[in-house]
């Protein structure tokens, strides 16, 4: 039994130092595999959109800066514009996406010359822009827009353009081959 446990630990250690490990240096990062289409694309669109868009102040780090670091500019903004006791969750029903037309967005992206689009589908505060079963009541289907924002955009892009729409990277794919599972 000790022999099996030792082999298991050794295997874990060996695989923890495989090519899925990168250092915070340009040299290390430049060695990561990129899909050919990404390397050749040159122009792409990254969009951050979610509950944090409602106050139209700061960035996607709104909640963290307001409640996490207690940044005085965020606290003052909230005191000036929202009633006492207003919570970050109170923004979610206001995130309606009423002017969201994924077909028009796809056409605009195509006209811009973009070769790929990345929509931040879940950000730091955990709100998902799709109907997630694991983020009960904190997703775009259960509150706010009441629709699958990611699915609608993915369908529009895939059905009417030649733009690449995906969330996964070659790095993630290379790690999927690893025997170590999380």
TrEMBL record:
It comes from the Eukaryota. One of its GO terms (molecular function) is alpha-L-fucosidase activity. InterPro entries: FUC_metazoa-typ (IPR016286), GH (IPR017853), Glyco_hydro_29 (IPR000933), Glyco_hydro_29_N (IPR057739). GO terms for cellular component: lysosome. Residues 18-165 form the Glycoside hydrolase family 29 N-terminal domain. Residues 1-20 form the signal peptide. Keywords: Glycosidase, Hydrolase, Signal. SMART domains: Alpha_L_fucos. SUPFAM superfamilies: (Trans)glycosidases. Its EC number is 3.2.1.51. The keyword Signal applies. GO terms for biological process: fucose metabolic process; glycoside catabolic process. Belongs to the glycosyl hydrolase 29 family. Alpha-L-fucosidase is responsible for hydrolyzing the alpha-1,6-linked fucose joined to the reducing-end N-acetylglucosamine of the carbohydrate moieties of glycoproteins. This is alpha-L-fucosidase. It comes from Amphimedon queenslandica.
